[in-house]
Amino acid sequence: MRFDDHRVVITAAGRDFGRTLALRFADLGAEVFLSARNLAAAERVRDEIRERGHRQVHAFSCDLTDPASIRQFAADVGRHTDRVDVLINNGSRYLHGPDLLSVPDADVVDTLASGATGTVLTVKNFLPLLLDSAKPDIVTMVSAAGTAGHHRSDAHDAFYAAKNAQAGFAEILSKRLRPRGVRVISLYPPDFDNPDPLSEEWETTPRGAEDALTAQSLVECVLFAVSQPRDCFIKAFHFEQV
């Protein structure tokens, strides 16, 4: 499976799962546009990818709580490419604490802004570039916390609210963009392990039904979904919790 003709935008790619996605897409030939709230973090991943021999990678700063920053990110990407084939909404602040009173108001605002408003505005600003693609996909890393009735996470209520907002947005977006050829794909993972994609553990560690979900499996879901023929709309991936 190769993505040599794909141009992929990934938010919050400066660490953790965003970094994992950026490394894997670059290794498979995609041109990658990655962002992080801190430009230095994005540049570290960019340099890491370049050290692996991939030159088609670009780093940007983007604060998903700031509409002007999102607009600037999309404009900067637009100066490098005339289209975006895959937009991955990976960015969303995690907030821990099952007690609503446990965090200050500013943390609540930041969590909702990054996960909910930030996702909507990122799609809005990148939609013109997506519509210029012959194979546009929008992938959103939601969370099991965005599914109805879920209560097993220790995340704060504000995180649950942000993820349910993402889920609702993806639902209506899928219906409204399908006639324009845009596939909207959502992933609803529970907490998962994120081994370094450059380690031996990534490819060689056997996994079984009793094991927790890993980032490797999630990446494979994303790669599978965006590689399908254009008449195949995989709307969502839901996962059992161990």
Question: Can you characterise this structure?
Answer:
The structure is a single chain. Strands 3-2-1-4-5-6-7 form a 7-stranded parallel β-sheet, sandwiched between helices. Helix content is 42%, strand content 14%. Helix 4 (105-131) packs parallel to helix 5. The chain has 7 helices and 7 strands. The longest helix is centred in the middle third of the chain and has 27 residues, at 105-131.
Short description:
With 242 residues, the chain is an alpha/beta fold.
List keywords for this structure.
single chain; 242 residues; alpha/beta; Rossmann fold; seven-stranded parallel beta sheet; 7 helices; 7 strands
CATH topology: Rossmann fold
DSSP strand tally: 7
Overall 3D shape = globular
Helix content range: 40-55%
Q: How much of the polypeptide forms β-strand, as a percent range?
A: 5-15%
> What's the CATH first level?
Alpha Beta
What's the topology here?
Blueprint lengths: L6 E4 L5 H12 L3 E6 L2 H13 L5 E5 L5 H12 L7 E4 L15 H27 L5 E5 L15 H21 L5 E6 L11 H5 L10 H12 L9 E3 L4
Parallel strand pairs: 1-2, 1-4, 2-3, 4-5, 5-6, 6-7
